[in-house]
Amino acid sequence: MPRPSPVTDEVRRLFETQERHAWSIDELLTSVRSSLGAADYSSVFRAVSLFEREGVLDRIDLGDGRARFEVRDDHHEHIRCERCGRVEEVPVCVLDDASAQVHNLTGFKVTSHRVVFGGLCRECGA
Amino acid sequence: MPRPSPVTDEVRRLFETQERHAWSIDELLTSVRSSLGAADYSSVFRAVSLFEREGVLDRIDLGDGRARFEVRDDHHEHIRCERCGRVEEVPVCVLDDASAQVHNLTGFKVTSHRVVFGGLCRECGA
DNA sequence: CTACGTGCAAAGGTTTTGCAACATT
DNA sequence: AATGTTGCAAAACCTTTGCACGTAG
User: Fold this and answer.
1) Which nucleotide's C1' is closest to B41 (Cα)?
2) Contact, B84 vs B124, CB < 8 A?
3) What is the pLDDT of residues A10-49, one digit of tens each?
4) CATH code at B77-125
């Protein structure tokens, strides 16, 4: 039986139950603190690092200077509001057949891609 | 007549004459030092910041933790070797007509996008 | 003398790690 | 007693800024 690990458990629970996408460590920490009362940044960091090592989470970089984590599932892209920073999921992969073209153009063996759209969300665009 | 500004001039010269894409500040600094003998990181930083403000350079983020700069020109995507970090240009935009689809799917007003392919360059893939 | 470019050093922000304390097995 | 989880603090890494110096106008 594993030892109690409230912080790690709460981080896991957040990813399992919440609909949120692309959690930053700070966002996770805020949520964990509201549940547990207290927690340290490094503990949350170690939790997501563990899950990333286990292959449960993917680390993504949206270009806003902070790492974000989300459950590893079907590939998709992201869209981030350039005004408020809100991040949502683009539920399709628009590049599935572009890789061959990229290979032809560059000679690289394409193994991954990462797309981030920028824009204004419904609230900010109004 | 402007004052002498060897560092700024040399950074400008690198962008004007070199074929390299997506310079990081450290890469610029190394190159400037090999030409001028000595230069400071902050001077190179201020040069690229100036050029970015002037609209001559674009800052891009390839997800490797360092800012990169390149001459503002026709929009294109990037591909980065996941092993050696080499960055090359993908001389097409594979997303020109995907924005409307993204808008329909998310409701965001799409104003930009950023694509980074990952892969293995010809040397590393062998 | 004034203004600008530069170097130096330090501040900021985020990620990462070392270490000791603590609790559970 | 041993081990794993956590908190605290500091290191590490990159970007950014404050300040003083030196030089050209």
Assistant:
1) C7
2) yes
3) 999 999 998 777 899 999 999 999 999 999 999 999 999 9
4) 3.30.1490.190
